[in-house]
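Re: that backbone. Tokens:
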């Protein structure tokens, strides 16, 4: 079993963060598609 030493939580609405996150070598990357995305942006995307 691999030990997870580092975790990145990336707001999924920020394309710059999404594009760059893999190059930093985190053991785990979680894309936050709800809480890190501003509410107005979520409401606009639902339409």
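Recovered sequence:
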């Amino acid at each position: 079993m691999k030990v997870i030493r580092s975790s990145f939580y990336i707001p999924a609405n920020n394309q710059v963060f999404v594009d760059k996150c893999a190059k930093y070598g985190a053991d785990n990357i979680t894309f936050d598609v709800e809480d890190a995305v501003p509410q107005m942006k979520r409401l606009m995307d639902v339409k």
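The mean pLDDT is 81. The radius of gyration is 13 Å.
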